[in-house]
Write a structure and sequence with these properties.
Residues 275-673 form the SLC12A transporter C-terminal domain. The chain crosses the membrane at residues 126-145, 151-172, 184-208. The protein has 673 residues and is of the alpha/beta class. The protein has four domains: 1-70, no CATH class; 93-226, no CATH class; 263-404, Rossmann fold; 480-662, 3-Layer(aba) Sandwich (Rossmann fold), CATH 3.40.50. Helix content is 53%, strand content 9%. It is built from 23 helices and ten strands. The protein has a ten-stranded mixed sheet with strand order 3-2-1-4-5-10-9-6-7-8, sandwiched between helices. Helix 4 packs across helix 5 (126-140). The chain is elongated, with a radius of gyration of 39 Å.
């Protein structure tokens, strides 16, 4: 076919001059100029130089019926032209609406979804046929083939260019799914074809080429911005994957540097929807610039939880994408919570792209949760520090867990869907089974009524608590009011306690919150300590609105505060001091997890420090948008788990949202930029 086309073109070009007057008497006259486009005719003895001034009706450039003139039998050319035109028109009329219908079914362009509907057993796109007919008639009514041809030709060439480039791009991506069957296929030939098509578009008509490119770019921008829920398995995905792997491998060969440190957070949210406040705050730290993994530990028999875990993987990731939270979901199945978290801490991430900070919610129910749950929770904190993770605990007075509200919402949606399906079924079946469906509907309503009556009406107090919980859960998703982030930097942990709140102030939602720094000082050295801190912050290039030196931190707490602590730990104390030695030994063996009198005496100063800190926080930071405090650390096997939980509880009690932060003693701040 290609050879035939080229032969015809060469034959016509070899037998017809560019411009001709059509007058056989326009011969070459000696002494008269014969040039420009008439040179070829001059050599044949004709002078058509007048065509440079006046428009001529003959020649390749002017006579569109030139094929009929040079052919052996002119009517055959006309018949062939009609046949080719009709076959192309019919092919386009049938195939274009089918392709257009497939595009509309993908629902990429919402306004075109009307044309997705088909008719008959072959799903014929009748609406597409009508639209194609209207467009065709509109072009025909232009009445000038020379006006239509450049536009149509450019659109065809654009299609060929995109097909060629798609082939090249798929080859470049090295996707195993791209397996061209053509023996002589070459990716660079595809690229050359795409470039030639683009060049020819401008050669034919530059303004039509620009119009075509403009339409293509607008369509591409629309798809990019709208991100339709369609998966084509495109070569772009393959190239992105190859690029990501390549970048991860190149990053693995570079050692970490303090200047490039950024928090990569593994946040224990459970299901992605379960603790929204925890996820939102973690996302504020990482945003688009760091890694955020929202993780869930499934505890129980493996055979039962694998199915739940696998179903939850895609569901949770889809929810994260839908709510525009730039995070990844990961789940793990283990016999207990601590083992699962340990697996996540050790195995999460890829090369240098792995978490360096653990974020977890405060265990509000530690006094009723039981010994195993508390030991597991505290063990996770110890494991994180052992694995050189920074550790962050978030406490909100109303709590973090909204799983019961999510479950209720899903139950209501399920019931609504069932009711809608039942109504649709009734409408479909009409009056034939009206009595049967009425009975079914009544029975379903009876079930719902029974379910509600068994549960009973929600008490006003519970409803109020749930309302406050939902409000607290969404507080980090909205813009924060004008206020402060109070940072109580009590220990040098490498700077994580200072870096995380600084990162928050760079986010749009927190831009109205100013940093206030509180440090512990010695009596009589307040001014000197303040100047030293100012100098340090200046070197770190961290701006804060105020620096406060607390020099009365080691004063004994008030008696009412100490009583609150005593009431808190009383159920977990062994009280072996009032017993003889033998009885005390027996009690310790029976309850090794309880707080002994010796332990309380040994850590009395540190215990009182947590109580005193809470008093100071109540005095100075009660109105802050967020409080950040250096997290106290308990030595393994020296401080019992319940005493440590009491420290954390009494330290953060009755305060605004509070973050307890402890770095891994590796520097995350540097003087150098």
């Amino acid at each position: 076919t290609g050879v035939t086309y080229l032969a015809v073109a060469l034959c016509v070009a070899a037998t017809v001059v560019r411009d001709a007057t059509g007058n056989a008497t326009d011969l070459v006259i000696p002494g008269v100029a014969c040039n420009n486009s008439a040179v070829a005719a001059c050599e044949l003895g004709y002078n058509f130089s007048s065509c440079a001034v006046d428009t001529c009706k003959f020649g390749l450039m002017n006579n569109f019926q030139v094929m009929t003139m040079v052919s052996g039998f002119g009517p055959l050319i006309i018949a062939g032209t009609f046949s080719a035109t009709l076959s192309s028109a019919l092919a386009s009329l049938v195939s274009a609406p089918k392709v257009f219908q497939a595009l509309c079914k993908d629902n990429i362009y919402k306004a075109l979804h009307f044309f997705a509907k088909g008719h008959g057993k072959n799903n014929e796109p009748i609406r597409g046929y009508v639209l194609t007919f209207i467009i065709s008639v509109a072009f025909i009514l232009i009445g000038n083939l020379n006006t239509i041809a450049p536009i149509i030709s450019n659109f065809f060439l654009a299609s060929y260019a995109l097909i060629n480039f798609s082939c090249f791009h798929a080859s470049y991506a090295k996707s195993p799914g791209w397996r061209p069957a053509y023996k002589y296929y070459n990716m660079w030939l595809s690229l050359l074809g795409a470039l030639l098509c683009c060049v020819v578009m401008f050669v034919i008509n530059w303004w039509a080429a620009l119009l075509t490119y403009g339409i293509e770019i607008l369509l591409y921008i629309y798809v990019t911005v709208k991100k339709p829920d369609v998966n084509w398995g495109s070569s772009t995905q393959a190239v992105t994957f190859v690029s990501a792997v390549s970048n991860a491998l190149s990053l693995a060969g570079v050692e970490d540097h303090v200047k490039n440190f950024r928090p990569q957070i593994l946040v224990l949210t459970g299901s992605a929807r379960t603790r929204p406040a925890l996820l939102d705050l973690a996302h504020s730290f990482t945003k688009n610039y760091g890694l955020c993994l929202t993780c869930e530990v499934f505890v129980g028999p493996r055979s039962e939880i694998y199915q739940e875990m696998n179903a939850g993987m895609e569901k949770n990731q889809q929810w994260l994408n839908k709510t525009k939270r730039k995070a990844f979901y990961a789940g793990v199945a283990c016999d207990n919570f601590r083992e699962g978290t340990e697996s996540l801490l050790l195995a999460s991430g890829l090369g240098r792209m792995r978490p360096n900070t653990l974020m977890i919610g405060f265990k509000n129910n530690w006094r009723t949760a039981g010994r195993d749950a508390v030991q597991s929770y505290v063990g996770v904190l110890h494991d994180a520090l052992d694995f050189e993770y920074g550790t962050v605990i978030l406490r909100i007075n109303q709590g973090l867990d909204v799983s019961h509200l999510v479950a209720e919402e899903e139950e209501m949606l399920k019931a609504a869907r069932e009711q809608e399906a039942l109504d649709n079924q009734m409408m479909t079946n009409g009056g034939k089974a009206k009595g049967l469906f009425r009975k079914s509907r009544n029975s379903s309503q009876q079930v719902l009524t029974t379910r509600v009556s068994v549960c009973g009406p929600t008490p006003a107090q519970v409803a109020k608590m749930n309302e406050k919980l939902m409000e607290a859960s969404g507080q980090f998703k909205k813009k924060q009011p004008k206020g402060t982030i109070d940072v109580w930097w009590l220990f040098d942990d490498g700077g994580l306690t200072l870096l995380l709140p600084y990162i928050l102030t760079t986010r749009k939602k927190w831009k109205d919150s100013k940093l206030r720094i509180f440090i512990a000082g010695q009596p009589g050295r307040s001014d000197l300590d303040k100047e030293e801190m100012k100098s340090l912050l200046k070197k770190f290039r961290i701006k804060c609105s105020d620096i406060n030196v607390i020099d009365d931190i080691h004063i004994k707490p008030r008696s009412d505060s100490l009583k609150n602590l005593d009431d808190m730990i009383k159920p977990f104390c062994l009280h072996e001091g009032s017993k003889d030695m033998i009885q005390a030994d027996v009690m310790q063996k029976e309850h090794p997890w309880k707080i002994t009198d010796a332990e309380l005496s040994s850590f009395e100063e540190k215990t009182h420090l947590q109580v005193r800190l809470n008093e100071l926080l109540q005095e100075n930071s009660k109105s802050a948008n967020l409080i950040v405090v250096s997290m106290p650390i308990a030595r393994k096997e020296s401080v019992s788990d319940f005493l440590y939980m009491a420290w954390l509880d009494i330290l953060t009690k009755n305060l605004p949202p509070t973050l307890l932060i402890r770095g891994n003693h590796k520097s995350v701040l540097t003087f150098y930029s």
